[in-house]
Amino acid sequence: MKTSCARRRRGLDRMRRNKRGAPHAYCVQASAGSVCCAQQPTRSTTGHSSGRPRTLAQGEEPQGMQPKRLACRLLRPVYLFQLRRQDMTVTIGGLSHTPQRQRRFQRAMGASLLSITLLAAASCPAADQAPPTPSTPLQGWAAMADKDVDFSLQWFKDQSILAVYPDPAAFEATMAKARKQADADIQQVTSFEGYRQTLAHFFSTFNDAHAYVWMQLQAKAYQWPGFLARYQGGRFVVAGSDGSVADGSEISACDGQPMSAWSERIALYEHMIPENIIPGLESTRARTAPIMFRYRKSPFLKRWEHCTIDGRNVSLNWKSLAQDELTKVMSTLKPDLGKDVAITPFGDNGAWVRLGNFSPENKQQSDQFAALYKAAPSLRDKSVIVFDVRGNEGGPYEWFMGVLRSLYGADYTNYYARERLKISAVYRLTEASVDNSTFSHGSPGADAPADPPPDGIPYDENSKLSQAAMARGDRVLHAPVNAEKIPKPKRQPINPVHARVVVLTDYDCESACIGFVDELKQFPGVLQVGTETFVDSRTGSPITAMLPSGNGGIGVPYMTRDGRPRNDNVPQKPDIEFGGNINDTAAVQEWLMKILKKG
C-alpha cells in the first residue's frame, strides 16, 4: 500500500484517471457475495456531458422515484433511484458551480466503490408539509434524512479507519454527537434544502475533508439580491453584480453580524462536495463567499434583510435566478484556470510552470507531464521558476515527485524531499478496501493516461500483505516509515538549479497539492506566494457509497498517516500574501514581478 490515497495506483486514484465524460464504473453491494456495477453516462455528441444536471421540461410532472437498473455481476439486480421534481434537477457528475468544482463532483461520483442495496423511497412531499414533531412518524425528506444518517453512521463503523484506530472510544463519542445533532435537525426538515443541509451538518461534525457527502440533486432556481461575493485580501467584496451594487464594494456585515461570523455558520451546513468547507480557516471564508448570497429557503440559515456595504446600510431586494444563470455568474467570479501542465515564458528570462493537476485523466494530460519532465533540466539556469498550482486538487504523489526529480535531479530531491517518507500509513482492512476487483483501472484504449514515474518501491501493491493480515484477523495494516525504501544521500548534494524557485498557491490547492508544497518548501530558498492552501487531515483514501435514498453518496477515510509532520487541518501559508483576486492571472503575475524585482 501507499502512504496516501493520492499515491495509490489502484482504487480511487486509478478511477481519477478516467477521461472526463468517459464511462465511470461504480459498484453497489446487493448482498453478501453479490456486487453490481454500472457506468455513468458518456459525453454526448453536443459536447456536453450527458451526466450534467438535467432541467425538467416546462410542465413536466414530478414522477417520484424513477429506478435505473444496474447490471448485476452475480445475483439479483438492484436499483439506483433518481428523484425528479419540478423545482430541482437530477445531477450525475456535475453541479452548478465553477468548472473546477464540477470536476471534483464528477470524480466523487466516479469513485464510488461499494454500497448497500439501494432502497426505494416514497415520492417527495409538498414543500408546505407541516414540520414533523417527535411524536409524529418522519415522512418525506425528513424520513430520507433519517435513513441516510443511519446508513452513514454504519458506513463509518464498517469502513472508517477512525472507528478502529487510533482512538475508537473518542470516535464513538463523535459519532454519537453527530447523531444527536442530526436528530435535532431532522425535526425541522420539510424540503430538499433542509435535507441537504442536515446531511452536510452531520458530516461537518467530523471536521475532515476526507469524510463528506455529495448530492445528485440540485435546485432549478435560487434567490439572490443582484450580486454575489468574493473573498480577497481579508475582505468580502461584491462580485458578479447586475449593477445594483458596484463590484468591489466591501461587505462588512449583514443583519448586524460580521461576514466572518456568517461564514463560519454557513460552513457548518455546506460541508459537502463540491465546497467541502472546513470551519475556522481563511479558506472557509474564500469557499463560503460565492454561495453567501445564493439562497434557498432553509430551516437553518436565514435570508438577510440588509447588509453594510462600503459603510452604508443597504436593503436587499431578493429575486429569482435560474440555476443556469447562476452558473454563468459564478464562472465570472472564479474563471476556470484549467488542468494543463505547461511551461510559458515569464518576464525576461523566467519560466511559468503551470501545474493544473497531479492526476492526468487522459493521454494528452500525461503527455504534458512527460514533456515537462524532458524540458525541466533546461529551466535550471532561468532567472526564476514559478510553479503555479492554483486550483490543483491533487492526485498520486508520483506525478509531482517526477517534477521535482526532473528539475533538481534524483540525489538532491531524495536528500530534501522526505516529508512524505516520515509517514507510517495505517490502513483499515475491509473487503471493500482490499478487494482489487472492485476498483476501476482507468479509461481503456489509446486515450488512457500513462503510468506515473516510480517513487521508490510500491508498498503492498498487490494487497498480499493486506489479505494475509485479514486472514489473521487483523483489523489494520501498519506500513513502515519510508515504506518506499528511498535512501537519503549521505552527503548534501550540490543544487543544480540556479534559478529562484517560487510556488504560487491558492485556497483550492488541496490533497496532494499540499503534499507537493510540503516537499518543495524543504528545498533551500523556495518561496511560497499567493494565499494559503486548503487543508486535509491525516486521514485519507475515502471509500464511497451511495445513500439509501439514492439522492447522493458519501465518503469516509479508511487510512490515516501516523507521523505526518503537518498537523490535521493545517494549511501551508505563503511567505508573501497576495491581497487581490488570486484567480486573476495577469494581476498575480504583475504583482509577482514587482516582488521579485525588490529582491
Automatic annotation (TrEMBL):
GO terms for biological process: proteolysis. Residues 352-565 form the Tail specific protease domain. Residues 38-49 have a biased composition (Polar residues). Residues 1-22, 38-65, 438-461 are annotated as: Disordered. Pfam families: Peptidase_S41. GO terms for molecular function: serine-type peptidase activity. This is Tail specific protease domain-containing protein. It comes from Xanthomonas citri pv. vignicola.
